[in-house]
Amino acid sequence: MHEAPPGGTTVFSMTGGDPPRLLALAVVALFLVNLPGPVPSQGRREKKEPAPPAWRKPLEVPSTEGVHCRTCNGKGWRWCRRHRRSFLELEAPLRLSSAASSCPECGGMLRVDCPSCRNPAAEAWLEAFRKRRLAWLKEKRIYDKVVKHELLHLASPHYEMIFDIPKLKVGRQVLGRHRLAHLYLDRLEAFYEKFKRVMHCRDHEFKPPFQVCLWDRAKEQNLVGARITGMGSRGGHGTKLMGIRVAFTVARGRGVRTDEDLHRCVVHNVAHLLLSNIEPHQWIGKLRAGWLDAGVAHYFEFLHDGLCTNFCFTEQNTEIDFKGGKWRAWLRKEVAQGGDDLPRFVAYYNKLIDELSPLEHAMAFSNVEFLMTEYGGRKMKRMVREIMRKKPQRKVIEDVYGFSVLEFEEKWRIHVLKTYPTRE
Questions:
Q1: Taking CA 52 as the corner, what is the angle to CA 46 and CA 57, rounded to the nearest 5 degrees?
Q2: What are the pLDDT digits (tens) for 172-190?
Q3: For residue 397, what are the contacts with CB-CB under 8 A and spacing of at least 6?
Q4: Domain that holds residue 119
Q5: How far is CA 221 from CA 66, 164, 228, 233, in A?
Q6: Mean pLDDT throughout 311-334?
Q7: How far are the Cα atoms of 189, 372, 397 from residue 380, in angstroms, in the given order?
Q8: Do 119 and 251 belong to one domain?
Q9: What is the pTM of this model?
Q10: Residues 260, 261, 262, 263, CA torsion sign
């Protein structure tokens, strides 16, 4: 008889004992060893917390070497005890934020100087950060005075955000303003990385920060949006500023009620911002390449969730609907029937973006989707840059893609018939 080791595991010996019984145990053991592993879709799954986005790393505070302190572990600072860990996890990676400005202990810096030691490097950083934050807040609080209430101001690595939506249902949860703002910052930073990847861009080709303002009511958007972009928003819910300094401001309204609608709207319009901000930083929509400006924005909207529901004018209009936002099957049907009701590319490729009809927006999306699918983002970026340098579009298309404008249309038709679905 063998004793069980600590923990209650029984040890079986293959020497001695009843041979038939041992043989049976061996067969059972062999059977168990060869059982397949658990199928992922069956049984209970262990819940794993999603990894935080790559940009969400707390700011690094320099520290003087050789400082030994039990209170702060030699860092020279500690986290403000008035804030919960979940709050700190959201706020610590931000470059700047107004979320905790009223805190009597840290004043919104989240970090406080260690009272038990002297750490010159950390103290200097904290003081410089305090001054920079106060100057930034002074500039942002001007907008608070305009709307007569406190707005939420956040700054991530590539974006500066004004957020004034009190709550919104996301999936099955209703998120409050602070958590919702951080969700949209995560989405914006993720979209920046996606845009770079698809368009074969690098960080040095852009001039951040990109300003995005999301509002619950058109009244506040009209007041602040006009100051940020220099344009009013009569007949729409928002405005954009494009080029070397970019901004997008929009209010929830008809067509932008739900989180899904707002997310898609942000994707579409931030695609406009990033496209115009590529070096040499020109808005091609005003250089009579409206089809390309609109088409790229619709393309990224389509990549997001398969729908195209946003139409851009100088003043953002969110009340237009064309074919329910599903354009490929309808376009395929029209092309298969000869395409007599479709506008020719030469009829709209030199229009301003404001001059495009809803049908021409759908055509522009399809034209860009064809070029991106068949030839990739590298050539697309090259074409955009050449147009920014004010070269004629006919010449640019021939130089970049090797075919004429008329050949372009024929190749597009072949692509539509070959790749577009008959139903969506």
A1: 145
A2: 999 999 999 999 999 999 9
A3: 383, 403, 404, 405, 408
A4: 77-135
A5: 52, 9, 10, 9
A6: 77
A7: 22, 7, 10
A8: no
A9: 0.86
A10: positive
